[in-house]
Amino acid sequence: MLDFLTDGLRAALRNTNLNSVYELRVRAGKPVVMNYGGNYTYLGSAGATDRQGAALVASSADVEEIVYRASNYSVYSVTEQMRQGFITGAHGERIGLGGMYVYEDGRVFAVKEVTSLNIRVPHEVAGCGEQVWRTCFQNGLTSVLLLSPPGRGKTTILRDLARLLCSGKPLNVLVSDERNEITAASMDFSLDTGAFTDVIRFARKSDALTAAVRAMRPDVIVTDELVSAEEIAAVAACVRGGVEVLASAHLRSIDALRISPVFSVCVREKLFGYYVVLSEEGVGCMEGIYDADLQPLDAVAGC
Fold first, then answer.
1. Residue 301 has pLDDT above 80, yes or no
2. Which of 85, 136, 191, 200 is most buried as measured by Cβ atoms within 10 A of its Cβ?
3. Is 130-291 CATH 3.40.50.300?
């Protein structure tokens, strides 16, 4: 985990509880900041510190070294990922890139002069999806969409739901893992989910879902962070064809879902049997669960 960091950052993190490190913000010429146990603080050589003066300060060379290490010293090999604004580490760490975006023919051609990194550290939280599991799947398999702003554990819950899906009645579960975060090697995902899981990595969701339905015959597809109308259309095609989908989206609330032009088809066609709005109280905590008609279920909130 985090093998791509500079030696200084790795040494500092040895003085922290890595299970509580959710994010690292590495900015050229600025103090290193981390989300530690849900709160932002500085990272110093002795670990977490509230004093900015005690924080490690990243250099441009540090940022460049992390990018090269994360790409296994071949930035060319991660060009497509970088065009989307991120690199994925070997253990599922998502590294967001800030810098100069270069366009060609109306699309991102490259990201150059990277000056800041947002490193999101994946965690395994066994059991965090159990309330969603008990509520949404008590009457059988259905499609579920998790909603929240970034950083509230959508991917972690999806990973746990995939595990729970494979722990009961045998089902063909296909994971569309565009950024290699759900099935990160450090999570021993293949061991947890047994013999009934297939994985498509680093493919665009629309391509992966189309190929999956045509060739892999899944009962359910698990995928992360739906964004575009094209992706929603691919999900719709799956559901119409009898394949359920577990997915997530960056939406703050049910009201945001209602007014979103991209997600309107979900509501209109009742693509999802349930919508789960996550809470900021912690991974696995919910503000509420709503049915296909966007009506709240009674007494479903908390952790």
1. no
2. 136
3. yes
